[in-house]
Amino acid sequence: MTASSGDIRSAEDHSNSRSEELAAGLTSTRELIEQLAKDFGRQDVPELLPVTKFHPAADIALLAELGIKDVAENREQEARGKAEELPDVHFHMIGQVQTKKANHVARWAHSVHSVDTEKLANALNRGVDNAGRESLPVFIQVSYDGDTARGGVALDGVEELAKIIEDLPNLELRGLMVVPPLDTVAKEVFSAVRELADSLGEQLKRPMKLSAGMSADLKEAIAAGTDIVRVGTGIMGARPLG
């Protein structure tokens, strides 16, 4: 059945409208990040990584037309499908990764922000080898309160995991990632992990980045010196129903 000209125009109108929404979200988010960086006397502006989980590949294609080449996803199967559909976009994994899915993640992820165990690090290292790619940038996810059930390695385990990753030939440690637990003060969490990242960087003789801060705690993360902020709703709007 052939689509009518009316259906085609309707689809085009929807695409144009959605593109305008995304452009507005990007502009306002960037302006906010730049203003906060200025307010806190920073000489740099944190990198913006749009979080596109639950949103269709069509939205990400529109973001690409707006100049966005890097996005973040939380769920492996969903991200894999989008990566296959949009090979020119870099997809970053920020959600927990099951060891059994590490081989898949190593094939599509431009980086993984949620490495929290030796077992996962080894699985990703093997996955990179199987995929025939050169290396995979990774971040260690930190569990500030030590409750690793929600993902992350406890503060006192970060250095040991960093050493393990450093010895794996196919992984490249880029820094630390943290999400503040609900019952904590975000500013304190971000400051502590920023300090830990800097200390680790001194040991490794190269800068370690901090991936921290989402829509609700953007101000606190930028004040603490995050290098990467992960924003979803502020750019994408509410997640689609269904």
TrEMBL record:
PTM-bearing positions, type N6-(pyridoxal phosphate)lysine: 53
Metal-binding as UniProt keyword: no
Region (Disordered): 1-26
Pfam families reported for this sequence: Ala_racemase_N
Limits of the Alanine racemase N-terminal domain: 43-240
Top-rank taxon, per record: Bacteria
UniProt entry keywords in alphabetical sequence: Pyridoxal phosphate
InterPro entries the record matches: Ala_racemase_N, PLP-binding_barrel, PyrdxlP_homeostasis
Family annotation (CDD domains): PLPDE_III_YBL036c_like
Keyword Protease in annotation: no
Biased composition, class Basic and acidic residues, residue ranges: 9-21
Family: Belongs to the pyridoxal phosphate-binding protein YggS/PROSC family.
NCBIfam families referenced in this protein's UniProt entry, alphabetically: YggS family pyridoxal phosphate-dependent enzyme (TIGR00044)
The name this protein goes by in its record: Pyridoxal phosphate homeostasis protein
Organism: Corynebacterium casei LMG S-19264
UniProt lineage: Bacteria, Bacillati, Actinomycetota, Actinomycetes, Mycobacteriales
